Amino acid sequence: MAGQAGRRCSRYRFLPNKGPIRPGACYENRTNHENSSSNQRLGYFVCLHGGANPASQRGRPPPAPPSSQPVSATIPTVSLPFRIQTTEGPARLGRLATPHGEVETPVFMPVGTQATVKGVPQDVLEELGVQILLGNTYHLYLRPGINQVRQLGGLHRFMSWDRAILTDSGGFQVFSLNELRKVTEDGVTFRSHLDGSSHFFSPESAMEAQIGLGADIIMAFDECTEYPADASRVRQSMELTLRWAARSKRHFEDHKHEVPWKETKGTQALFGIVQGGMDPALRRESAERTIELDLPGYAIGGLSVGEPRSLTREIVEATVQHLPAEKPRYLMGVGTPDEIVEYASLGIDMMDCVLPTRAARHGLLFTSEGKVSIKQVRYAADQGALDPNCPCRVCSRYSRAYLRHLYASNEVLAQVLNTIHNLSFYLDTMRKVRHSIGLGRKARSLSEVWSLP
RNA sequence: GCACAGGUGGGUGAGUGGUUAAAGCCGACAGACUGUAAAUCUGUUCCUCCUAGCGAGGUACGGAGGUUCGAAUCCUCCCCUGUGCA
Fold first, then answer.
1. What's the ipTM?
2. Which of residues 156-185 of A touch strand B (CB under 7 A)?
3. By CB neighbour count within 10 A (0-12 exposed, 13-18 middle, 19+ buried), where does A393 fall?
4. Beta carbon of A229 within 7 Å of strand B?
5. Closest CA to A370 of A336, A323, A405, A328
6. A389: which DSSP letter?
7. A153, A184, A381, A404: which could join A157 in a potential S-S bond, CB 3.0 to 4.6 Å?
């Protein structure tokens, strides 16, 4: 029996599996059409609102009203149009047009390493207003395999996610799997954490893999410099990343049309990654030399690797000013709610972090009133909402006592609900940040953001 | 009634004469987590005291006695539990 949507709009129609996934379509009323006997999915019912941004239709609370201020910059780039609507000091409000819908910036991107945001189904992510997800090349390469994903229609189709995706190159695993790797000029030899088998990643193979996955934004293959590291090591690592970035770009340009799906064929955007450790001069040099590659966006990598937070902020500030104002700036791997507000105020457009999802699974919840460790006995009889200021489906329905019980009982629902709340809190926070920039009132702290009307 | 087996800290379960206040696991209580090798990891978990230490006392391996320099560990009796046979 075909699933029935509650209501259908005028442009609702059936899209078979073989058909293209339409970028920018409104999937508000999408349902799966299933053959009950074979249980094989034939396709979807899709409501095709031309050009509508799904996120802007789903967001709750409603997104910031369009700014009346004139567009200050419209710079077409290689393949990723980025329009800055408003700036407020270094902070900017922008729109990134990906082949899978527009992304309003500053944006927080939940991490879905293995083609899933652990514990949360895609329709809930859509409801939360997630505009863009992260995937991980290394993990998907090991399982299920790049070719497998390609044969299944690419990462979007495979995981049934029609909004934007960014894939990390696997460079971070060079850093985090340090026991199982060997770095040479050519690339990195990994030992799989799954079965110990040996694999080789290079800038070229990382590009091929990301072309095969078909994400909207892909990352250059870099080396995330460890902390602490002495000056010569930081320079050597930075130089390696620069050479790898050039190789990444060369290989990508030569092969980008090999993407088998027309939505992203030739329109994938390759971002470069700035390294340089904790040295502002090296950061500047890394930024300037990476920019020479003229890529559609730039990331700041190598932070949140164990250094003190004040240093992170200092390096972000020292780096972001050397990145072109007209292109998106992506700060990789941060942060706490306070930190993402602060980094947005410094001019960062994109951020991702496993913290909200991982901490949620471990019972640590972020609220407008600070951190809540829901496992604590003090919440055992607390009938209040997790966060009385949070409108999410978890806070509006369940008590702290119930959430604690679920956690203490090791129920999977604890992970699901906790993750939904934390993501909702992060996404709301960024929505409020965008709102405040749109109002011409740059918010610098989390409490300031949450006290906005 | 007889014959075996067994009674260990909140639970389970090691330990069969000497760093054993007693392993491990579970539970309980805290803490960590920042481009996810993470439903993970770390710490604490008998009582009292302080100069807070691989500190000092006390209590503790069903109960009561005993052997021994020393007993959760060996012996005696008692209580209780399980299984089998009558």
1. 0.84
2. 168-169, 171-173, 175-177, 179-180
3. middle
4. no
5. A336
6. T
7. A153
Other C-beta atoms lying within 10 Å of the C-beta of residue A264: 27
Active site members of A: 168, 352
Whole-number Å distance between alpha carbons of A372 and A428: 17
Per residue in A139-197, pLDDT tens?
999 999 999 999 999 999 999 999 999 999 999 998 898 888 999 999 999 899 999 99
Q: How far is CA A51 from the centre of its chain?
A: 22
Q: Gap from A408 CA to B63 C1', in Å? A: 39
Q: Which run of H or of E encompasses A246?
A: helix A231-255
Strand B–CB A120 distance below 7 A = no
Nucleotides of B under 7 A from a protein CB: 27-41
Positive or negative torsion for Cα A75, A426, A330, A452: positive
Alpha carbon distance A143, A435 (integer Å)? 40
pTM: 0.84
- Separation of alpha carbons A99 and A165, rounded Å: 10
The amino acid occupying position A255 is: H
Distance (Å, rounded) from C-alpha A218 to C-alpha A255?
13
